[in-house]
Amino acid sequence: MLRHLTRLRPHQRELPNVTATDALLPTYGRIPVTVVSGRGCTLVDSDGNEYLDFIAGIAVCALGHAHPAVTEAVTAQAKRLVHASNLYSHEPSGTLARELVARAGMVHAFFCNSGTEANEAAIKLARKWAYRRGESQRRTILACTGSFHGRTMGSLAATDNAKYREGFAPLPEGFGFVRFNDVADLDAKIDESVAAFIAEPVQGESGVHVADAEFLRAARRLCDERGALLIFDEIQCGMGRVGPLFAFEHFGVRPDVLTLAKALANGLPIGAMLVGERAADGLQPGDHGSTFGGSPIPAAAALAHLRVRDETQLEKNVRARSEQVFAGLRALSERHPRIIGEPRGLGLLVGVSVCEPYEAKAIQTAARERGLLVGTAGGNTLRFAPPLIVREEEVERALGVVEDAVDGVEG
Questions:
Q1: Structural domain of residue 355, as residue ranges?
Q2: Of the candidates 315, 219, 259, the residue with the CA atom closest to the CA atom of residue 106
Q3: Which member of 29, 40, 119, 391 has the lowest number of beta carbons within 10 Å of its beta carbon?
Q4: Using omega within 30 degrees of 0 as the cis cutoff, is the peptide bond preceding 170 cis?
């Protein structure tokens, strides 16, 4: 049967020595590692090599790999119902919606499949919300310099990174940018043409930069005074990554719209837009949709994630391990000031600048060769986003590997 399925048809051509990776569209600069399994904070490749994972699928696997509670929830749900479409109500998406809006102090949830889709939904909601109020001139979506909101056309238009935007013009109109953490610039640009201001409480892709609480408080005040919505993109920094379940809790500023994805289902594809009372009627039947959004299996995984959080002291662990990571990286910076800068970030989303002419990617490679996976980000930055369950001894081991990697690069 397998031979029959893989037999070339007349219109197909022989491609000798083509690997599975070669067959994929080359949209990623993949690291030469094929991962086959994982458990906790450890990944195993096809050659049997083990790696301590300190990037967690880019801040996705908050509970680590193959967490038994998530595995059990996914398996049980797959035996009952995989898909029914959003023509009907179904569980566990309804339960997940209720849990998320209650915990966030919101009123509605919309589910999709990814972070960029959640931001697309938020953009559409903001414009339709203004339109429904007879303010059709309110079309502008303001974002921040250094922002990253996704790669679909609308989210890309709200992303301040020329590398990602190049070659895709014309992007959708009606977007503008405010200098990150500049209250005066925000004050000058929020006017009657602005439908919404979108910001990441912690910018991940640009190099791990934390918003000033004053900046976010000013955004809340100005949006209220001038009739715009406030949107927080917590796709990377939410779901406990900085400590509290939602990053906005750390800053004491509640948005009108909150977008989530990445860690929500601990690796299964799901995105969410949570909507507060002020914007509750922004989207109505027929305004937006998603075939797979809120599918039962990823929703069940997300509920399992929330249960694990309730049953464990996950926030306490994030605080303790964050202090350990920051202390270790500060000490590393003091010992290698020509290479490593001061760490920055919040919770277990941490970045550290690498001083030129040294390169973050070189240290990333050296760390991988020593059994540690870390990420990179904008501005020649090493990015650390381990699972939130990471143990003290694993952080200690990772810090030792990073130092060995820096020593190797320094020569």
A1: 20-53+313-410
A2: 259
A3: 29
A4: yes
Neighbouring C-beta atoms of residue 291, cutoff 10 Å: 10
Read off the pLDDT of residues 334-354 as tens digits, 9 standing for 90 and up: 999 999 999 999 999 999 999
Give CA–CA dist 367/371, Å, rounded: 6
Q: Residue 103 is part of a domain; what is its CATH number?
A: 3.40.640.10
Residues recorded for the chain: 411
Whether 4 is in a domain gets the answer no
Locate tokens 């990073």: which residue? 402
Domain C-terminal end among 259, 291, 311: 311
> What pLDDT does residue 6 have?
54
Q: Are 66 and 39 in contact (CB under 8 A)?
A: yes
Of 251, 284, 311, the domain-final residue: 311
Q: What is the pLDDT of residue 247?
A: 98
**Spatial separation of the C-alpha atoms in residues 115 and 260, rounded to whole Å:** 6
* 134 exposure class (CB count in 10 Å sphere: 0-12, 13-18, 19+): exposed
Share of the chain above pLDDT 90, in %: 89
Q: Confirm whether pTM is higher than 0.85.
A: yes
The tokens for 278 are 């002020």
Q: Is residue 9 included in any domain, yes or no?
A: no
Residues forming beta bridges with residue 232, ordered by sequence position = 199, 258
User: 8 is written with which tokens?
Assistant: 């070339």
CATH number at residue 26: 3.90.1150.10
Claim to verify: residue 303 and residue 317 sit in the same structural domain? no
Contact, 402 vs 360, CB < 8 A?
A: no
The reported pLDDT for the residue numbered 15 is 57
pLDDT in tens, 138-192: 999 999 999 999 999 999 999 999 999 999 999 999 999 999 999 999 999 999 9
- Cβ distance 224 to 20 under 8 Å? no
If one compares 28 and 55, the residue with the highest pLDDT of the two is 55
Look at the chain and report how many structural domains it folds into: 2
Exposure of 385 in the CB half-sphere (CA atoms within 13 A): 30
DSSP category for residue 243: S
Residues 324 and 304 grouped into a single domain: no
Return the CA Rg of the chain: 22
Residue 5 has pLDDT above 60, yes or no: no
Q: From CA 359, how far away is CA 370, in angstroms rounded?
A: 17
Q: Is 268 helix (H, G, I), strand (E, B) or coil?
A: strand
